Structure formats: structure tokens, C-alpha cells
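Two proteins were folded this term; both appear here.
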Amino acid sequence: MTEPARVLCVFGTASDVGKSWVTAGLCRIYAQDGVSVAPYKAQNLSNNAGVTPDGLEMGRAQIVQAQACGLVPHVDMNPLLLKPTAGHGAQVVALGRVLQDDDMEAMFGSSLQARRALVFGALDRLRARYELIVAEGAGSCAEVNLRARDLVNFPVAHHADGRVVVVADIDKGGVFAQCVGTLACMPPEDRARVSGFIINRFRGEPSLFAEGVRWLEKETGRPVLGVVPWSHSIHVELEDELSPDARVDGPPPDDDSRFQVAVLRVPHLSNMSDFDALERHGVGVHFLSRPRDLSAYDLVVLPGSKNTLSDLSWLHRLGWNRVLARHAAGGGAILGICGGFQMLGRTVADPHGIEGQPGTSVGLGLLAVDTVFGPTKVTRPARGRLGTTRLEGYEIHVGQTTVEGDPLLWLDKDGGERPDGARQGAVMGTYLHGLFDGVGAVAALLSPIRPDLDWPELPPHAHWRETQLDALADHLRTHLGEGLRGM
């Protein structure tokens, strides 16, 4: 009988220390070295999701990590996905499908047994198929108050007899306390699994930290496996939220030689990877939360949202509805993606109370469309065209939208085509995530708005993602060096 795969656990001293980034890089390194490797994260808390080729939903970070391994994403790589909703709740996606009320009760009842059976079952299936599993943790791996309910960190390591490396973020400050304190908070059986530390996001001359490395190794009894510098040139999709380098509510752009986009930073922003291809094409991407004059921007985007009705209410409450109406009346271009598309319409009805109390909300009224939420969630890969330009992406949404007038895109369906989205003057909407990723898609969508600009002919965005993963692997190889042998 073949032995189950070895498991390497990448845990952290806190949230946002770079676990997903390091995990993706390690996955690519092992794949380059000919190891049959797969990623895994038992439970993800994120609104940044994607769709597998078979139409199932999982965390975006594990999709990227699967790509780093050269694999087709599979929901066993992220068996539980929690998508925060308005208030304190979350939509639960188990093995790619949204749980209904009865299943929720069985899964989140009085004990952890059902959840652990789900996540450990997925891990065991992966271990039967591959030689190595790189398992990402969540948050801090030493949260004392959560230890008894933890599904993602040391219970996974103990179940799979895994080795643990702990990532710490020196850019946040207090890295010595992060490492020493994390170990001190662990029970002995957890501490015994820790092989060493990775000091991430270092700025400056690494030799100046040599004394710090010696101190950490002496105080913790664990090696520092590497000091990894911050890289501004490597772009790998994050697990959730915006890049640490992203500015919100910065000054208006004053360079009209570039196409300038404003993305409204709604409270439940999702699928931020939709905008990666824009920046790659030289587009200035700015995130705005506070209402302002929009005349400096060539396009305003209402992005995807996990809580369309809550974010729609936020737009009305802050006065964005009036700002957007003025912008549209002056001929300004506006694009809504998924939840943003729904918000641009006349009404959004929620008769089943999917996102709160049943009822109908008044939309922004900039497109002649109406949306009704239903109990069935749409998750599917999608291909289509804008004019003669081919597009490829995916859909994740609750709700069906009735359109009066012209669609924006045409998507493939059963050998034919189906309409998607809407267009009314310079106001546009679509359900297609990833619509900018296809070859020529940025030019096809944006050149009618700024015909004076020339657009570069770039390789497919998927190819660019591969180059970024290779660059990340090279970066980690350089700065982990012999530390890779200690993992």
C-alpha cells in the first residue's frame, strides 16, 4: 500500500503575514523540482472566491496555489469556505456548494465532528493522490481562546503528522515578540511540530538582521529558515482584501496620458483579482470609499460584492448614488461587475431573505434592469465575446437579472450564445468575473472610452500569472536557500 503524502504546514504568527504568498511559492518550487504536490487549506474565511472547471466554488488563494502546482483546482484543496455576510454571519460553502439550512445545522451544531470529518476527509483524499501537500493555516496558529475549535492549524498538522513552518511579518514590527510569543502560547505537542521560522516582508539590508536571527534561534531553539525581502515586482493574487500597497481615497490622478479607473471600495468588496489585468496594461487603478467628483477618472467601476443589498444601502447612505447619477448624466463611463451590475439597476428584490429581511431595494437606476434573488447560486466558468474579442472568466452570483435593451456581452451556451449584462450609453454591467483577462479584452472594453490611447498587445493574462509564480519561486529559492532542506 502506498504511503500517504507528507504534509508541510505553513502557519503564521498572525493574519496577513504572507502565508498564502509563501504557500504558493513553495508549491511552485516543489512542482518545478518534479514533486507531485498539491495545496490545501481546510477552511477559508474570504470573499475572494473562484470557480473550478466543474462549476464548484472555492477560495481564490487555493486556485492560485493549484495553478502553482500545475494542477486543475479541486474543492478538496479548500473543503470549507466561509464568506462573511452583513452583520456577524457567513455563507458556508462546503466542497464547492452553498449549504442550506438543514445542512448548516448538521455541520455547525454542538460539536466539531462533522466539520472535522469533512476537512480531514478532503485532506486524506489529497494525500492518497499526491506525494506532498502544502497546507496553509489561518490567522495565528497560537490563538489560545480558539484552540479547542480550530480546524485549520494544528489539528491538521496532528491529523497528518505534518511538519510546521511559521511565517512572521517583520514589516509589521515586533517580529521577535511574534516568534517567541507564538511558541510560548502553544501546548508542548504543538510546539514539538515547529521546524522553524520564515521572516517575511523584510526591507533593507539583510546582513543588518543577522544578529536578530542569532537571537531568535537562541531564544526559540528553532532555526530561522530564511529572511525573505518584500518584493514590489512580484504580483500574486491575495487571499482576501486589497494589496498592502493599495491606496484608498488617495489624491485624484493628474496624468491624462494614462487611462484612469476608480473602483468603489464597497464594504463587502469581492473578487479583487478582476483588476489585475488593468494594472498590467498600464491603467491607473484607484480605490475610493468617500464620495468625490469623478471627472478625473475615465471609468468608474462598481465591483463584485458578497452583500449586494448591504453595499447598495451603503452607497445610498453616503451619497454615492447622487455622485454616480451626475457622472452618468455628464457622459461618464460606469461599469458594474456582478453585484455592482445588480446595484446599477432599478430594483434588487430578495423575496426569500437571502441577504437579510425579505423585500425589494431601490437600485441606482442607471441601467434598465431588475434583479430577483433566488435560493440557487450560480457558479460556473464562462466564455464569450465582446464584439469579435474572445473573453473567458467565471460567474458567482445569486439572482437572475431581467434586462431591457442591449446586452453588453454574449456568452457561450450549448453550442449557441446567451446575452450577458447590459449597456445603456456609457453605463455597462456584466456578471462575468475576469472579463479583462482575455487577449485584447482591455482594449476592446476601454478603447471606445479613450480612443486616443494605444493599448499594448500582451500575452494572455494566464501566461502572466505563470511568470509571476515562477518569479515568486525564484525569490523564495534565493532567500530560503538551505532553509528549504529544513522543511
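Next, the second protein.
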Amino acid sequence: MQIKWYGQSCFEVKTKDTIIVFDPYSDDIGLKLPELSADIVLVSHEHFDHNNVGAVKGREKEKPFVISSPGEYEISDFYISGISSFHDKSEGKERGLNTIYTVSGEDIKFCHLGDLGTGLSDEDLEKIGDVDILFVPVGGVYTISAEEALSVINQIDPKIVIPMHYKISGLNANLDGLNEFASQVKISDLEGQDVLDIKKADLPAEEREIVVLKAKQ
């Protein structure tokens, strides 16, 4: 499994037979989304910096299969669960709803929290279940803060954490940078790596790893 990050909450997860893209954004945020193609596109919520599905081409079909709401889905060799959550601490009254996605494939389960704006309940955690790789927003302002992100990470207890939705060069959104999150956790490489190539045998057995990815443009 190969994982790339394109800034904000946009990731590409590629396996031997399937490509999944999360939360493609509009160029209005100041970043340029590269040309992407996918079999499946997952959208956490309908804000312009997360729902630009028209920018992603299909591979085998003319258009990718788009999932933008909670539910259970089985596509190709992947089992996908969408879990309803809130984009704010006021039960969605400020910014609406957000969908958390868990995706299982190639013996790895990863979880994309989207623009989660609040902590997780016991019911949320039961629905999420055990997670190998967690994509978590850490930039605050529109999502949970760095400190809150650490609390959510400890709740889910994944093997690998990949931070997302924080201030990077070119992004015109007013978010906190990675340093705020780095002050809460141990990160060995703040500069980050281009790609995470991972298989089940590579997952850490004991100590949790924080993996920073460079935003590919």
C-alpha cells in the first residue's frame, strides 16, 4: 500500500488493484491539486476544500465511485464504513456534519477523520474499532486543535498517525502549523517524506509512530 498526501485532507491510497482518493480540494485554497485518477473518491463533507470530485478522473470507468455520506460499502477488495460526526462542538450548528471513514484492505485498516471538530464518544470509538493508520486533523480553527488531536489519537490508539489539515506553504486557510502538534508528540522527521509505502508486516508492534508526509504538488 502506498500513501501520498496533497495537502489539507487530500490523500491518495494506492494498492495493487485499487486507488482511493480522500477529500480532493478546489484550487481556491491556494494549493494546486495535481491530476488524479481513482477508482473510489471519499468525501468527508461538502465544503469546497474537501469535495472537488470533478477534479478526479476515473480509471477503469469514466468516473470514480464517489462516497459522500455515512454507510457501509464493499468495493473491489475494500470494506468502507462511513461514520457520522460533527464539524464543530455545537452538534453541527456552526459547520455541519462530517463523515469519518474507516477503510480495510490488504490486511490494513486506516481511518480518515475528515474535519472532525469535537471529541469522540464511546459509540464513535466502537464504530471505528481497531485502526492501523490514522489520518488526523491537527491545525485547529476549523477542526480539533493539536492538543485535542492527541486526545483523539489516544482514544483510537492507532499504530501509525499521519497528521493533516494544517498550515503549509501556499495554503491560504488560517490554520495552525505542524509545530503546535509536534510540541504534543514525538516526531522524528518534521520535514517529512514523499510517500509512505506500507504493508501489514511493516506496522509497528509496540510504540506508535508519527509519520509526516510532504504535500505533493
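The first helix runs from residue 122 to 128. The chain has one domain: 2-210. These notes refer to the second protein only.
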